[in-house]
Amino acid sequence: MQVEDHRKRRDKIEGWDVEIATYRIGDTYHCHIDNVSPGATVARGEGKSAAAAEKDALEKARPRFAATRRVTR
């Protein structure tokens, strides 16, 4: 199977810079959300449409980012 309909965008979730990648493999769309620095995966989602996959991943990512403590210097 091959990745199709791939798109990436940058956004902010709970004050964190993130990269959201959405793509389709077969009949299923997948979404991957990572924090830009260092690029660690925070959440993944899937669905029958790109919007459904992104919604699934965002529902998982929001509370994770909200619970993450920021260290400022």
Keywords:
73 residues, alpha+beta, Viral Envelope Glycoprotein, domain 2, 4-stranded antiparallel β-sheet, 1 helix, elongated
Description:
This protein is of the alpha+beta class. The chain has one domain (3-65): Viral Envelope Glycoprotein, domain 2. The chain is built from one helix and four strands, in the order E-E-E-E-H. It has a four-stranded antiparallel beta sheet with strand order 1-2-3-4, with helices on one face. It is elongated, with a radius of gyration of 13 Å. The mean pLDDT is 92.
How many domains make up the 3D coordinates? 1
Architecture (CATH level 2) name: 2-Layer Sandwich
The helix-strand sequence is EEEEH
Which residues form runs of ≥5 with pLDDT under 50? none
Distance N to C terminus: 46 Å
Summary, kept brief:
The protein has 1 helix and 4 strands; from the N terminus they run E-E-E-E-H. The chain is an alpha+beta fold.
SSE blueprint and pairings:
Layout: E1 3-13, E2 16-25, E3 28-35, E4 41-47, H1 50-67
Antiparallel strand pairs: 1-2, 2-3, 3-4
